[in-house]
Amino acid sequence: MDAGNLLNLKNQALAVISEAETKKELSELKVKFLGRKGEVNQLLKNLSDLDPDQKAQTGRLLNEAKTAITQALRQKTLKLSPAPRDWLDVTAPGKTFPSGHLHPITQAIEEVSRIFERLGFTRVRYPEVDWDWYVFEALNMPEDHPARDEWETIFIDAEENKKMGKMVLTTHTSNGQVREMERAGKTLPGKTPIRMLNIGKCYRRQQDRTHTVMFHQFEGLVVDRHIGIPDLKGTLNHFAREFYGPKARSRIRPFNFRFTEPSFEVDFSCVHCLGRGCRFCKSGWHEVGGAGLVHPNVLKAGGLNPKVYSGFAFGWGIERCYTLKPGLNLDDIRLLYSSNLEFLNQF
Ligand code: FA5
């Protein structure tokens, strides 16, 4: 065995390996050249017959041939293996793009509007920066009347108007009452009735778990001939059932507002215990706002004759009404305006 024979063996092996077309052929070639009784091993066994110089040189050449054949076999095996294809699962759900949603209070405003629209109320919006006249004076709260103190008003640094007084950020949506009477008087002379739903932002200098500086109210105003407390009570109960569920009820308690007579505080039954009293509500009821029959002085300020017309009005906080819904149990309304997406994404 000389170096030339070894080179031949190596070249012959590399040639047939490169021409092999199947994996089966390759495994046969592996046995033929590298197997226990294969050609390379046969030659290795014969090494002991050689003299020491030849032994070293032939051994090195044999190892080189063995390495080259092994590598050629590995490469050709890879070539004959089918390339892994990109996996496409046509049944997998598609990728959805994140999309936003309406703020929970906007959703609540929509829901409240739908409930009253079905009763024939028309949604309106009146200024959120308004004259003292519409916010207080026309509502039977003359300047310096102590009742004004409860409204923790934010005043605008603007020129005063002789008749209308100072400008304020509206403390309640009741500013829409006289504005609506004026509008109805102009556009429907002699044809009042009014069924108004005024929803807007309100502002007061208050901030704690149940109060925010900016909040929303919705104001209902109905004016017609022969409107009385049963009309108010029926409307309250209808809203309670539609907004909180068929078993919900409303309750009115005597109170004092300058612009309604008589005046009431309005409660809705607790959604958890339906008025029996539980850990969540204590008394069975939650207060949401005020209501009453429109005061004759307010009708007069709106240009309507109190001997002909009567009406009822109510005004509630949207945040307050919304947080009493079943399953919400939100004990700090400031979270609604915290821009905390982890919280808001739940709605
Ligand atoms: C009023 O604002 C009257 N205008 C309601 C009214 C209308 C009475 C028509 C009669 C006829 P009051 O100040 O109680 O009333 O506020 C009503 C509701 O607004 C409260 O019960 C509460 O739900 C909500 N509210 C008041 N202040 C805040 C505040 N700072 N943050 C959040 N909600 C508030």
Automatic annotation (TrEMBL):
The protein's required cofactors: Mg(2+)
GO biological process: phenylalanyl-tRNA aminoacylation
Annotated Pfam families: Phe_tRNA-synt_N, tRNA-synt_2d
Record's catalysed reaction(s): tRNA(Phe) + L-phenylalanine + ATP = L-phenylalanyl-tRNA(Phe) + AMP + diphosphate + H(+)
One Gene Ontology MF term: tRNA binding
EC number: 6.1.1.20
Magnesium in keyword set: yes
Bound cofactor: record note: Binds 2 magnesium ions per tetramer.
InterPro entries, per the entry: aa-tRNA-synth_II, aa-tRNA-synth_II/BPL/LPL, Phe-tRNA_ligase_II_N, Phe_tRNA_ligase_alpha1_bac, Phenylalanyl-tRNA_Synthase, tRNA-bd_arm
Presence of the UniProt keyword Protein biosynthesis in the record: yes
Family, per entry: Belongs to the class-II aminoacyl-tRNA synthetase family. Phe-tRNA synthetase alpha subunit type 1 subfamily.
HAMAP family per the UniProt record, alphabetical: Phe_tRNA_synth_alpha1
Protein name: Phenylalanine--tRNA ligase alpha subunit
The species this protein was found in: Candidatus Beckwithbacteria bacterium GW2011_GWB1_47_15
